[in-house]
C-alpha cells in the first residue's frame, strides 16, 4: 500500500514537472502549467498522425533556412491568432465581407506567415488528410520558430479545432496597439485571461524580429504625445540612429528595423536589457517600466546571468496563451485549406 502511494506521488510529481514517459523527443523545458483544458493534450495526434510534430519542424527548418525573418514572423502570427477569438486559425480565413476579416485589420499590418502555414498544412494533408487543425499548426510553428532562434523547446498541447468566423472588427478591438500604456496592456491581456506576468514575459518575444518605422516612428521619434519631438524616455543616441532609418512625416514608412539591434534572431534576454537602457522600440515596451511588478521583472531579467528563469516563465506564459478560447471536441472543424473563404 505504502509502495503504491509512493508510486502515485512519484507519478504526480513527474507529471507536474512535465515529464511524460514514452513521449519521443522530450523537451528541454517542459513544465505545462495550470489546469489542463478539456480536449487539449500533449501528443494529441499520437495515434492519428504520429509524424505531425516532426513534419512541422522539418517544414519550419526549411522555411527559416530559406528566410530567417520568417521565424519571428510566425511567432507574432500565433499572438495575433490567439488573442482574437482564441487560437482557432481565424486569422487565416479570407472574408468577402466589406469590412474584411482579421487579416485585413489595422493590427495585422505587416503580418507574415500566411503562405508558410499553408505550406505546412499541405504537407500534413499529404501525410494525414483532414486530421491536423490549422490552429494547432500555428501553435506548433511558433514553438519551432522559438526553438530555431535558440529559445526554449517545450511540449505543446494539441487538439484545437478551426473556427469559421473572422472579423476585422475583433482584431481591431483585441490586439493592443504599440502606443499602449501599461494599464491598457494589462487590460488587453486580462480580458483574455492573461496576467501581468504573461504580459511582461511574452513581451520578451520582441527579442527577435523587426518592426516597420510606421509602427513607432511617430510616437517615439517625431511626434511624441502629439507634440513635435522625440519621446524623452528614448535613449538619445539610439533615437538618432532610428531617425536615420525612419523618415520624418512618412506615415506609411515600411522600412524595417530590428527590434533588438544586438541579436535580432537569438531568443535571449537582450529585450529586457534594451528596455532598461531605453532602447526598446515601442511605447508598449517602454511602458513595462511604469508598473511596479512588470518593472521588477524587466530589471531582474536585464541583469540575470542565464536565461533559464525567462525560458521557464516563457513556457508557462505561451502555454497560457495557447489555451485561450480554444475550440475542441465537436466544436469548429478541421479544414483542408487554412485560408478558406468565409461569408
Ligand atoms: C504586448 C503587446 C504587444 C504589442 C503592442 C506588439 C506590437 C508589435 C508591433 C507593432 C510589431 C511590428 C509589426 C511590423 O511592423 O511588422 C510587433 C512585432 C513582433 N511581435 Fe509584438 N506586440 C505585442 C506582443 C507580442 C507578443 C505577446 C508576441 C509573441 C508571443 C509578439 C511577437 C512579436 C514578434 C516576434 C514580432 C516581430 C515580427 C517580425 O519580425 O515579422 N508580440 N509587435
TrEMBL record:
Which keywords are on file for this protein?
Calcium, Disulfide bond, Glycoprotein, Heme, Hydrogen peroxide, Iron, Metal-binding, Oxidoreductase, Peroxidase, Secreted, Signal
The active site annotation covers: 80
Q: Where in the cell is it found?
A: Secreted
* GO MF entries: heme binding; lactoperoxidase activity; metal ion binding
Q: Which cysteines in this chain are paired by disulphide bridges? A: 49-128, 82-87, 134-338, 213-246
Which coenzymes or cofactors are required?
heme b; Ca(2+)
Q: Which spans of this chain does the record mark as coiled coil?
A: none
Q: Where does Ca(2+) 1 bind?
A: 81, 84, 86, 88, 90, 102
Q: In which residues is Ca(2+) 2 bound?
A: 207, 260, 268
Ligand binding (heme b): 206
Q: Which InterPro entries match?
A: Haem_peroxidase (IPR002016), Haem_peroxidase_sf (IPR010255), Peroxidase_pln (IPR000823), Peroxidases_heam-ligand_BS (IPR019793), Secretory_peroxidase (IPR033905)
Listed GO CC annotations: extracellular region
Under PANTHER family, the record lists: PEROXIDASE, PTHR31517
Q: What is this protein called?
A: Peroxidase
Query: What organism is recorded for this protein?
Result: Paspalum vaginatum (seashore paspalum)
Amino acid at each position: 500500500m505504502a509502495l503504491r502511494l509512493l508510486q502515485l506521488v512519484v507519478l504526480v510529481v513527474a507529471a507536474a514537472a512535465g515529464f511524460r514517459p514514452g513521449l519521443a523527443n522530450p523537451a528541454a523545458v517542459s513544465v505545462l502549467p495550470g489546469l489542463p483544458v478539456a480536449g487539449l493534450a500533449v501528443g494529441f495526434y499520437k495515434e492519428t498522425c504520429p509524424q505531425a510534430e516532426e513534419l512541422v519542424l522539418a517544414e519550419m527548418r526549411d522555411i527559416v533556412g530559406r528566410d530567417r525573418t520568417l521565424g519571428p514572423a510566425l511567432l507574432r502570427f500565433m499572438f495575433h491568432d490567439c488573442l482574437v477569438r482564441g487560437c482557432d486559425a481565424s486569422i487565416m480565413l479570407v472574408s468577402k465581407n466589406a469590412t474584411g476579416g482579421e487579416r485585413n485589420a489595422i493590427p495585422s499590418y505587416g503580418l507574415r506567415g500566411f503562405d508558410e502555414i499553408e505550406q505546412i498544412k499541405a504537407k500534413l494533408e499529404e501525410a494525414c488528410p483532414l486530421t491536423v487543425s490549422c490552429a494547432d499548426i500555428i501553435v506548433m510553428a511558433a514553438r519551432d520558430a522559438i526553438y530555431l532562434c535558440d529559445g526554449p523547446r517545450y511540449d505543446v498541447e494539441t487538439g484545437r479545432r478551426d473556427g469559421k468566423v473572422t472579423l476585422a472588427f475583433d482584431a481591431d478591438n483585441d490586439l493592443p496597439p504599440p502606443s499602449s500604456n501599461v494599464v491598457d496592456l494589462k487590460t488587453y491581456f486580462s480580458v483574455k485571461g492573461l496576467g501581468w506576468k504573461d504580459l511582461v514575459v511574452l513581451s520578451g518575444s520582441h527579442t527577435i524580429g523587426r518592426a516597420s518605422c510606421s509602427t513607432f516612428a511617430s510616437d517615439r521619434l517625431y511626434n511624441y504625445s502629439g507634440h513635435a519631438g522625440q519621446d524623452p524616455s528614448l535613449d538619445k543616441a539610439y533615437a538618432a540612429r532610428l531617425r536615420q532609418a525612419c523618415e520624418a512625416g512618412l506615415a506609411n514608412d515600411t522600412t524595417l528595423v530590428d527590434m533588438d539591434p544586438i541579436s535580432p534572431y537569438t531568443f535571449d534576454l537582450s529585450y529586457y536589457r534594451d528596455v532598461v537602457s531605453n532602447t526598446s522600440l515601442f511605447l508598449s515596451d517602454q511602458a513595462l517600466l511604469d508598473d511596479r511588478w512588470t518593472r521588477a521583472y524587466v530589471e531582474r531579467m536585464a541583469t540575470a546571468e542565464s536565461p533559464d528563469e525567462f525560458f521557464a516563465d516563457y513556457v508557462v506564459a505561451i502555454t497560457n496563451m495557447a489555451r485561450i478560447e480554444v475550440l475542441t471536441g465537436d466544436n469548429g472543424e478541421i479544414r483542408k485549406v487554412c485560408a478558406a473563404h468565409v461569408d
